[in-house]
Specification:
By secondary structure, this protein is an alpha+beta fold. It has one domain. Helices cover about 45% and strands about 20% of the residues. Strands 5-6-1-7 form a 4-stranded antiparallel β-sheet, sandwiched between helices.
């Protein structure tokens, strides 16, 4: 629960490494900005096909590209988020099965500064702009409007909703340590 940016990205295997190289360069630029704004920021290049980025209090932003068939194999051992999101909705046509795919989300609800949401969205945009197929949905509305006030408003409103749900759980007997607090103090 909370404002999240969801993405499904498809690219030919031959271009994935260079695409993530470029995203890493862009992330370095944001890391320098984050340092000035005292926002924790860490970049980890796991492999040629995977880049992880931690920005402030957001969940880890993960670009991990794999074949649909690999996700399908993993799903046979239990639920696989990537496989489920890739085959549902618009779905993937037979012509797209040869691409490598990254399907994930990054929750920004608990950011301390709205610029953290912007950084996540812009790094996703960097990767998405170089993909053959890209679908991005930003619950904060920043990705398509480029208006940080939209993201700030949605994060605050969502925080209030989380707080109300928490209060209802408390009234039902849940302990404070079992409830996520919805108070959002975003700058």
């Amino acid at each position: 629960m909370g404002v999240t940016i969801h993405y499904k990205l498809g690219q030919s295997e031959e271009f994935v490494s260079k695409m993530l190289d470029w995203a890493q360069i862009v992330a370095e630029t944001y890391r320098k900005e984050a340092e000035i704004k005292k926002i924790p920021f860490e970049i980890r290049r796991i492999s040629d096909k995977r880049l992880d980025i931690d920005i402030g209090n957001c969940e880890t932003l993960v670009f991990s590209f794999n074949r649909l068939s690999d996700y399908e194999k993993e799903s046979k051992n239990g639920y696989n988020y990537e496989y489920e999101t890739l085959i549902r909705g618009e779905g993937i046509g037979k012509q797209d099965e040869d691409l490598l795919w990254a399907s994930a989300f990054c929750k920004t609800q608990f950011s301390n500064k709205v610029v953290e949401h912007e950084m996540v969205a812009e790094i996703i945009r960097t990767v998405a702009s170089r993909c053959r197929i890209a679908s991005v949905y930003d619950e904060g509305d920043y990705y398509h409007s480029c208006n940080l006030e939209d993201a700030k408003k949605n994060i605050i409103e969502n925080g209030k909703l989380i707080g109300k749900v928490g209060e209802m759980l408390k009234q039902k007997g849940w302990n404070d340590d079992q409830i996520v607090k919805g108070e959002t103090k975003i700058k």
